[in-house]
Q: What sequence folds into this?
């Protein structure tokens, strides 16, 4: 499966990446090669093999439901670009 | 044309844990902005999620309650989208392998029983909140809610009307509170609903194109929003148009749904397994332990109430509407054996009425189950009449002590002494010679007048049955 320039533009937009006009063709080609590898794997017969979600053969460790964090808002907001009345401020989001 | 409505619901249930799904921050509602948002919640580089055991337990509890399959192994995935109240750029959710699959919930509408399929229930984290007002054109972000555990419960498209949808929601609402996994507070957003609505010509097998109505926060609005949306779709199709698959927002002021175009483009969430989280593996011991910890469920309790206490289905339904209410009733019944029906009347009547009036919870009611039982006892043994009991209930509610204390203090003991009642009757008859004459002349309905006068003369304390008897004897005995 080969990706074209429009596909690359769309993927870049979804990932909020800026890709220059002159880079589109190169990305289309290299990304298509990755898909080629996936296609190769897709062709393998995996009947009876459980899908792997994680390379480690282990389960999630669970923690007790306890509040262990304390308020560090001052420290976090000291490095935020903008904060006011305890809130982080960001450019207006229009819904 | 005859149209059929098809509805599927997605309900987000906020789980009642103390801490977040993947961090040790508090989930308490109403804290100062961002004081409960730790490094994990605000997605500082280098942090890792560690999962809350009780969130898993609550999901299992729900699965068991709806007869679902509990997946011994489930997978967390990243749902990717960009929004400022989602600092990681993805929400940790479950996609291909959720913790709960294939359950069902029985509903009843107009006496018709129906089973609604539950496709799945999966664990995920909530996002923060955006505040669009008051910041000189900027948006304020509060991340206290970010990372709060949610159970998203997805129904099959089995619902065929807005009323069925509401019946299902109410059933689910009662259930999650019984299980103690959610406080059910819709105003605070602990129980939120999205509705997928479509219509199709009756008899057609294929589904029509659906619209998703987002975040409706009351049962009444869910019903109105669906009804509006169904009407809109039918009108659109009959006018030659086509329903577009989109997200719509319900405006309760105008009672209409509106397209939220801006979200359309962002619908490619690019799910993939979260490499930070290993599979959630639940060993049989964990599931068994949770199973033994299950409370009696609403349907079973309702059935038992009708059987054990001889209550009507309606009364049993009202009393089992919440676990607190059911427990209160049963505690009272135990304290005054032999009076399940009278007790039910008082819990459903006065007690519920006062709870609503003062907007208090069962647990905060000034009249405890023991106090109510004491009152019922005094009605049952004829110390007081039902009417006086209402006065006593009010006094108990206002903190004047238990029923006996109020009866003594206010001198409300019912008059059951035969000669005392007869004496009052004689006085009433003497004082009303004109009415007495009319009654004797055949105006039977004046009997009620005399009863009223006797009750008035005794400030309602005379035993009504005895008054009737004695009066009947006195009047009719003299007539012949």
A:
């Amino acid at each position: 499966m080969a990706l074209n320039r429009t596909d690359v533009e769309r993927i870049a937009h979804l990932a909020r990446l800026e890709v220059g006009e002159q880079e589109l063709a190169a990305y289309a080609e290299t990304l298509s090669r990755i898909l080629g590898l996936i296609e190769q794997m897709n062709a393998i017969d995996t009947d009876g093999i459980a899908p792997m979600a994680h390379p480690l053969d282990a389960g999630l460790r669970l923690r007790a439901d306890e509040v262990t964090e304390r308020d560090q808002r001052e420290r976090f907001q000291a490095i935020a670009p903008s904060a006011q009345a305890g809130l982080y401020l960001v450019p207006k989001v229009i819904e | 044309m005859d149209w059929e409505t098809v509805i599927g619901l997605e309900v987000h249930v906020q789980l009642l844990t103390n801490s977040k799904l993947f961090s040790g921050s508090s989930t308490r509602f109403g804290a100062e902005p961002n004081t409960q948002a730790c490094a994990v919640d605000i997605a500082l580089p280098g942090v890792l999620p560690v999962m809350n055991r009780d969130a898993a337990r609550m999901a299992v509890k729900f699965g068991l309650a709806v007869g679902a399959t509990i997946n011994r192994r489930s997978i967390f995935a990243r749902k990717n989208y960009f929004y400022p109240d989602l600092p990681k750029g993805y929400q940790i959710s479950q996609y291909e392998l959720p913790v709960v699959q294939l359950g069902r919930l029985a509903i009843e509408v107009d006496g018709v029983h129906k089973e609604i399929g539950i496709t799945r229930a999966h664990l995920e984290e909530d996002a923060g909140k955006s505040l669009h007002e008051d910041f000189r054109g900027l948006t304020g972000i509060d991340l206290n809610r970010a990372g709060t555990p949610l159970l998203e419960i997805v129904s099959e498209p089995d619902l065929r009307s807005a009323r069925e949808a509401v019946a299902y929601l109410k059933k689910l609402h009662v259930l999650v509170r019984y299980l103690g996994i959610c406080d059910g507070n819709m105003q605070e957003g602990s129980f939120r609903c999205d509705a997928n609505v479509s219509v199709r010509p009756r008899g057609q097998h294929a589904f029509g194109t659906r619209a998703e109505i987002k975040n409706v926060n009351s049962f009444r609005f869910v019903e109105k929003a669906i009804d509006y949306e169904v009407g809109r779709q039918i009108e659109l199709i009959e006018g030659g148009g086509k329903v577009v698959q989109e997200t719509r927002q319900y405006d309760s002021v105008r009672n209409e749904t509106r397209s939220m175009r801006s979200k359309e483009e962002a619908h490619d969430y690019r799910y993939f397994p979260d490499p930070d989280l290993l599979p959630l593996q639940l060993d049989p011991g964990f599931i068994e332990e949770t199973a033994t910890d299950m409370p009696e469920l609403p349907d079973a309790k309702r059935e038992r109430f009708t059987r054990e206490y001889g209550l009507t289905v309606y009364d049993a339904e009202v009393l089992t509407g919440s676990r607190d209410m059911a427990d209160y009733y049963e505690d009272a019944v135990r304290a005054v054996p032999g009076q399940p029906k009278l007790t039910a009347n008082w819990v459903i009547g006065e007690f519920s009425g006062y709870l609503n009036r003062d907007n208090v919870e069962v647990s905060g009611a000034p009249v405890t189950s023991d106090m109510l039982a004491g009152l019922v006892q005094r009605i049952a043994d004829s110390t007081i009449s039902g009417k006086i009991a209402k006065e006593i209930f009010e006094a108990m509610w206002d903190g004047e002590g238990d029923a006996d204390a109020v009866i003594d203090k206010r001198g409300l003991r019912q008059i059951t002494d035969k000669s005392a009642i007869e004496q009052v009757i004689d006085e009433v008859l003497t004082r009303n010679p004109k009415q007495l004459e009319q009654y004797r002349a055949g105006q039977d309905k004046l009997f009620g007048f005399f009863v009223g006068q006797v009750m008035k003369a005794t400030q309602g304390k005379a035993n009504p049955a005895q008054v009737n008897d004695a009066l009947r004897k006195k009047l009719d005995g003299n007539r012949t």
The two ends of chain B are 74 Å apart (CA to CA). Residues 296-410 of chain B form one domain. Chain B has three domains: 3-289, 296-410, 418-477. DSSP finds 15 helices and 17 strands in chain B.
